[in-house]
Amino acid sequence: MEKSPAHLIVSTGSLAYYIHISVHTYTQISTHDRGRIYLHFIVREDAQILYGFSTREEREIFRMLISVSGVGANTARLILSSLTPDEISQAILKGNVGLLQGIKGIGAKSAQRIIVDLKDKIGKGAGIDELFFSKDNTNRDEALSALVALGFPKKAVEKILTRILSDQPDLSAEEIVKAALKLL
């Protein structure tokens, strides 16, 4: 594996993949020879591009950023190279235009558009991150995270999960989600 602050080259068999990364991801993986990279694959008419991230959270922030009109993949990667995913989330939730505007290539209008477009998405997801990234995930927590990520209200999901697990406490996360989907 070849690493630089802007990209990785990962070889598998006779193939090598060029993966664009942020500086944040590079700092997370720079001392490791093995590990997991979460990918986002973009297919365009003239190119197929891989973007890699050290955490699911960073990949999700990237996906949210590229959903904003005027913010492309390279701009999103630049934002993630300048701020941590948590700093970006906090800047959006607090409406900190100045922090986002301080990133090269992000003007006042772009910063405001990012905040307006993503404030509800990040606010809606607040509280899920701990469940997704906790090292002590339980099946209930995994099911809760999955269902909330699908757009179901957290309080309603928690009630359904309590009901399902009181009857069948040994279900896997996948089985819990399937049962909850039937009831939601």
Structure write-up:
- This protein is α+β, with helices and mostly antiparallel strands.
- It folds into two domains: 2-125, Orthogonal Bundle (DNA polymerase, domain 1), CATH 1.10.150; 129-183, Orthogonal Bundle (Helicase, Ruva Protein, domain 3).
- The protein contains ten helices and five strands.
- The protein has helices at residues 23-29, 56-66, 73-82, 85-94, 97-101, 108-125, 129-133, 139-149, 154-167, 173-183, and strands at residues 2-3, 7-12, 15-21, 38-43, 48-53.
- A five-stranded mixed β-sheet has the order 1-2-3-5-4.
- A hairpin with a 2-residue loop joins strand 2 and strand 3 (15-21).
- The longest helix is centred in the middle third of the chain and has 18 residues, at 108-125.
- The relative contact order is 0.08.
